[in-house]
Specification:
Layout: E1 7-9, E2 22-28, H1 32-43, E3 50-57, H2 61-70, E4 76-81, H3 87-97, E5 102-105, E6 111-112, H4 116-126, E7 130-140, H5 163-167, E8 179-181, H6 182-187, H7 199-210, E9 212-224, H8 236-248, H9 254-277, H10 281-295, H11 299-313, H12 316-326
Parallel strand pairs: 2-3, 2-5, 3-4, 7-9
Antiparallel strand pairs: 1-4, 5-8, 6-9, 7-8
Helix pairs in contact: 7-8, 8-9, 9-10, 9-11, 10-11
């Protein structure tokens, strides 16, 4: 059973006139051991003028009991939702109840550095032209240990007008690193609830069209990698990005439209390649066929598409034999 009230909330009465209220949004669905640590990292922030809005997406009894307990804390609100399994829907529900000048996102399995909000708010005070901010991050395992591949991960510090660099795939923004003006967030329409994946990057693009972004280059977020956050629907991210590129083309000028067309072409090629290496030749061919209508003007698409066609027609052992003959050891 859910608690009898639709929303459990309390207010702290603490409203420093010089410190903007930050609404921290957490979507939750079970994963209680991670959720506790995530919420603790909010409670431990050095910047104290925040409210926490947790949107629970139909969790089991243990998680509901924990959330009912923290709802009695000052400045904490809990929204009890029917399960949808759609992150955009859950986050938007929390955003709809947020009252802060800024909104900060935190996923239920990730962690913030204690001074994250403090540093980002100070940055935005100094960068008046920026209405949103993000930070560097570290990928960690389920126990919080930094993943070995982090030593090899390429990180590009992108600041200011990042729209074109995002289109070229140079910008790496994780949802728990973002702090954004609530007014701007509502003006662009928050998260697209029709998207089941890549809804975060879709939002970043729309924000980037409206405002420069301020980067804090230190890693102030630990993004946790574990079995529960790997979706079996791996293709949905590519489908979501295709939708984003297609829609954005209606909102930009010719130069950016061409850039988005190239990005959409490359996204389709990557999706077709992923289908091909998984042995799903039919879907690989269908992706290539559908993408022809917007890709044919990109010169390198023809060569890459032909290579993918060969991969779908000939068995992998034959292609490997051909490569060995062309490049003998």
């Amino acid at each position: 059973m859910h608690p009898t009230s639709d929303i459990v909330e309390t207010e702290s009465g603490e409203h420093p006139c010089t410190s903007p209220l930050v609404s921290v949004v957490i979507p939750a669905c079970n994963r209680l051991s991670y959720l506790r640590a995530a919420i603790d990292s909010v409670l431990e922030q050095t910047y104290k003028n925040w409210e926490l809005v947790v949107a629970d997406d139909g969790s089991a009894q243990a998680t509901r009991e924990y959330l009912s307990g923290i709802a009695s804390l000052p400045r904490v609100r809990v929204l009890w939702l029917e399960h949808s399994g759609i992150p955009a829907v859950v986050r938007n529900a929390a955003i709809g109840r947020a009252t802060g000048t800024y909104v900060a996102f935190l996923d239920s399995d990730d962690l913030w550095h204690p001074r994250k909000l403090e540093y980002q708010l100070d940055l935005l005070r100094r960068r008046r032209e920026c209405l949103w901010s993000y930070t560097a991050f570290l990928n960690v395992d389920q126990d919080g240990r930094i993943l070995p591949e982090e030593a090899r991960r390429r990180w590009m510090a992108c600041d200011g007008d990042i729209f074109e660099r995002m289109t070229r795939g140079e910008v790496s923004i994780r949802t728990p690193t973002v702090l954004v003006s609530r007014r701007l967030l509502l003006e662009v329409g928050a998260f697209d609830e029709s998207m089941r994946s890549a809804e975060d990057y879709d939002l970043w693009f729309r924000l980037a069209l409206r405002s420069h972004i301020a980067l804090h280059p230190e890693s102030l977020v630990h993004v946790r990698s574990h079995r529960e956050n790997h979706s079996s629907d791996w293709s949905s991210a590519y489908v979501g990005q295709d939708r984003t590129f297609e829609q954005l083309q209606q909102a930009v000028g010719p130069d950016r439209r061409n850039l988005l067309r190239r990005a959409r072409t490359n996204n389709a090629l990557r999706l077709a390649y992923q289908y091909a290496i998984r042995g799903n030749r039919g879907n690989a061919l269908r992706v290539l066929a559908r993408s022809t209508v917007f890709s044919w003007r990109c010169a390198d698409w023809w060569l890459k598409a032909m290579k993918l066609l060969l991969r779908t027609v000939f068995p992998e052992w034959l292609l490997a034999l051909r490569r060995r003959r062309r490049h003998p050891v």
